[in-house]
Amino acid sequence: PEEYELFQTRKGQTALKLVSDFINGEGYDSMSDEDRAKVITDLYGFARDTAKNSVLLSRGEQTEKSDYDKARAIKDAGGMSWAQYYQTKEGRDMDGSGKPGAEETAQYLFENFPEDKAKKIFDAYYPDSKTPYEEYAGHAQEIKDAGFTKQEYDALTATVKEAKTGAESWDSKGDNAVIDAVVAAVGKGLSEDGATLLITENTSKYYANPYSALIDSGRSMQESMDILNLIDAPGKKDGKEVPPDKAIQQAELKAYYKEHPEEEVVIALIWDSMGYTGKNTKDFETYKKTLK
Fold first, then answer.
1. Sequence-ordered alpha helix ranges (H) in 59-96
2. Closest listed residue to residue 282, CA positions, set 245, 257, 260
3. How much is the pTM?
4. Which pLDDT tens digit goes with each residue over 94-105?
5. CA trace torsion 110, 113, 119, 124 (10° rounding)
6. How far apart are CA 140 and CA 45, in angstroms?
7. What Cα–Cα distance (Å) separates residue 91 from each residue in 5, 95, 98?
């Protein structure tokens, strides 16, 4: 009887506080009656969990994990009212799948909260995430800078992935298919920034790295592609010649340099972008000396 009385008292006290905070908090007035009812049902559930743990504590037993603990941590991390917490909980399911993940949550927070609050809320949702919020937010910023909405970016990425899936047998990394798909999108009005983002994220490092280096050096998308197309050579597969595969290899840079020593600056830039300095490679300056 004493435990039941403790349970009922704590449940009533907690429910009264939670529901009062909800009703008097920011965002309540803009909610529908249906949504208000859902929230209050949840809050009564939180009150039950809190009351149950009060009984366990009175026995000297270990308390049980509660959804309330995480919900409160997320709410407090963002300095949110209960209405705002539930709007965030629903809103982060941006694709309506019912199972929002870390990337989707980060995208929602990026669009709806200041950076400091977004990070705190994300960390409360995913305290053990291997990918920090800053990484997700950086990608979201790139998408925004390229002039995309997330929906537009996802649609174009799906088109690019489909192109890679249907790549020619010689195009093992699908780089050629990606370039063709992006160039087609540019023809329909895709910006150069948008094209660069799609190319660098969906091609192998053997194309993305030198392409990014050329873009960063101030060259346009078309200028960068023209340069790489000059360096890229036909390859061999099963003893047969195949078209250029958009993978800029060290051997191709060496061959191009021998024919065009006047392009030394560009070749050195691409060489460095590929990281051709390591255990089994030489930096470009060292390589040049071997030719003399």
1. 67-77, 82-91
2. 257
3. 0.72
4. 888 889 999 999
5. -110
6. 35
7. 39, 9, 11
Read off the tokens for 183: 């160039």
Write out pLDDT tens, residues 87-131: 999 999 988 888 999 999 999 999 999 999 999 999 999 999 999
Q: Which residue has the tokens 């249907």?
A: 166
For residue 141, the tally of other CB atoms under 10 A from its CB is: 12
Name the token pair of 149.
Answer: 């909405």
Helix H or strand E segment including 242: strand 240-242
Which of the 8 DSSP states describes residue 106?
Answer: H
Measured between alpha carbons, how far is 173 from 55 in angstroms, rounded to an integer? Answer: 60
Residue whose tokens read 């909610």: 31
**b/e string for 186-215 if b means 16 or more Cβ within 10 A?**
beeebeeebbbbbbbebbbebbbbbbbbbb
> Could you give the CA distance from residue 194 to residue 192 in angstroms, rounded to a whole number?
5
pLDDT tens digit sequence for 152-206: 898 999 999 999 998 988 888 899 999 999 999 998 888 899 999 999 999 999 9
* Whole-angstrom distance, CA of residue 188 vs CA of residue 182: 10
CB–CB of 82/90 below 8 Å? no
Check residue 239 and give left, alpha or beta (phi > 0: left; psi -120 to 50: alpha). Answer: left
**Pairwise CA distance, residues 252 & 267, whole Å:** 10
Q: What is the mean pLDDT of the chain?
A: 90
**CA-to-CA distance for 283 and 276, rounded, in angstroms?**
6
DSSP codes of every residue in 156-182: HHHHHHHHHHT--TT-TT-HHHHHHHH
